[in-house]
Amino acid sequence: MAATTAGAPCLLLLHGTGGDENDLLPLGRALAPGAALLSPLGKVREQGMARFFRRLAEGVFDQKDLEARTTDLAGFVERARALYGIQEKLVAVGFSNGANIASSLLLRFPETLAGAVLMRGMVPFVPPQPVELKRKPVLLLNGLEDPIVGTDEVGELANILRAANAEVTLHWEQAGHTLSQGDVLMATDWMRKFY
Length: 195
Ligand code: MLT
What we know:
The protein is α/β, with parallel strands linked by helices. It has helices at residues 25-31, 63-84, 97-108, 151-163, 181-194, and strands spanning 10-14, 36-38, 44-46, 49-51, 55-57, 60-61, 90-95, 115-119, 137-143, 167-173. The model has no long low-confidence stretch (mean pLDDT 96).
């Protein structure tokens, strides 16, 4: 965990498939200079690539594993908070597979996060019961040419979050699954506005 500046939120950085705990550190520093950064490595391996939960195929999730790994992640956050004395609000910043476990965390353990930046995220699951997110800010960053995450899926994710009373900001870039400079600028503005 990196050192913190008073008043800044703590960011929970969650990398994409095949990434690692270092990938999002520069982005975290750009989004919230001085913020404490909590950046775990996904524990699942898919042909050697690190992930946060198992999938059966691209975009088809092993729901049992997702549920168990989300509970694990909530436990990790709680232990890290105690270990490092983190009092700040926690904002998840997840990319792709990391965005998917971030939204699962938000929907299953709403009290864990103060908000989230979900980059190229999908619907992790449809909540079986109403969820209350109490106007927590959530930024969805998506690519109009993303071959993995379709526009309908993003719309469904936004609807699930809005139905849970999240304050959703939906932003589209002329981009694919890879992040662009516009995503970073948008996320930086959003962070300044809400935290
Ligand atoms: C997932 O498995 O979470 C999504 O397919 C995104 C990915 O990691 O490729």
